[in-house]
Amino acid sequence: MREPINGVLLLNKPVGITSNAALQKAKWLLNARKAGHTGTLDPFADGLLPLCFGEATKFSAYLLDADKGYRAVMQLGVTTTTGDPEGEILATREVHTSRTDIEAVLPRFRGEIAQIPPMHSALKHQGRPLYEYARAGIDIERPARKVHIRSLELVECAPPRVVIDVRCSAGTYIRTLAQDIGAALGCGAHLTALTRTAAGGFALERAHTLADLDALDASQRPALLLPADCLVAHLPAVQLDAVDAAALCQGRSVAHPTAHPGLMRVYAAPHAFLGLADADAGHLVPRRLIATQQAAAARST
What is the pLDDT of residues 56-110, one digit of tens each? Predict the structure, then answer.
């Protein structure tokens, strides 16, 4: 019986395939049973796509909700139906925009801003993704949502080509940001390229390509995976002795008066990740546990 594949692969997704296609290819190469990603990248985009396998999928939501970083290439003067190169051209305008003009409007888009999600997105309306309505020519009213632009910097400026770096909260649409910047400049804009450079505490420089994975022998590929607890490294940690670790894995709360209130990473000596627990009133209550650790605890009783 083969060992289950558990961990996180930092993938550098190529342009031209969906996030799910990249996930399925990596899953096949790793011979993994269970897999999921932590935030979709459009087919025209590339860059960091963390993939979770096995037990790591239990903690993927913590990275899904994390801040993201992007490098975006905008073309001023052209708007498209999708806000990216995959859509049909809606309008073209002459561009008489300078670096000074662009730097003058960027502050409007830093901090907390309101965005109307694009129709060509996976957001659901009455159980169906918005892009299905868009393909049918149906426009659905979408309420504006608050997002946070942590940083927005002009990297290159050679109008109509403009390159920006963005650090933003989860749920931010960079296509919409480019369109809104273009509207503020009075000439319109769309994205021609997009690279995700960061997700949570992970950077693109640490990522591997599908070609990297394919080039390795099957027995070498799991060595590229990071441990599941890397997804929750921002949470405080607590270590339990063998007795309390077994009790927690069996679903029981354990006394731990020094634990910080809130969600915590829990380990058994020596540094075996058990999962997450809620600390409250001097006790740790199981929240999300590693199944293999639970099975080991059950065998020990």
Answer: 999 999 998 899 999 999 999 999 999 999 999 999 999 999 999 999 999 999 9
Question: Going along 133-271, which residue ranges are E strands?
Answer: 145-158, 161-168, 189-199, 202-203, 237-240, 254-255, 262-268
Known catalytic membership, residue 42: yes
Say which DSSP state 94 is in: -
Domains along the chain with CATH numbers: 7-66+202-229 (3.30.2350.10), 68-199 (3.30.2350.10), 235-299 (2.30.130.10)
Structure-token pair, residue 90: 């809606």
Contact criterion met (CB below 8 Å) for 296 and 283:
no
Q: And the tokens for 164?
A: 């920006």
Q: Report the C-alpha gap between 181 and 166 in whole angstroms.
A: 13
- Digit-coded pLDDT (tens) for 15-47: 999 999 999 999 999 999 999 988 889 999 999
Given the residues 42, 46, 84, 229, the one annotated as active site: 42
Going by C-alpha positions, the residue among 95, 73, 71, 94 that lies closest to residue 84 is 73
SS3 231: helix
Res 121: pLDDT: 65
How far, in whole angstroms, is CA 117 from its chain's centroid? 17
pTM of the model: 0.90
Which tokens belong to 5? 């594949």
Spatial CA neighbour of 4 closest among 37, 30, 38, 36: 30
Q: Which two tokens stand for residue 176?
A: 């919409």
Q: By C-alpha distance, which of 196, 194, 192, 195 is closest to 76? A: 192
Contact yes or no for 38/63 (Cβ under 8 A):
yes
| 110 and 119 Cβ atoms separated by less than 8 Å | no
Name 1's Cβ contacts closer than 8 Å, sequence gap at least 6: none
C-alpha–C-alpha distance, residues 175 and 196, integer Å:
13
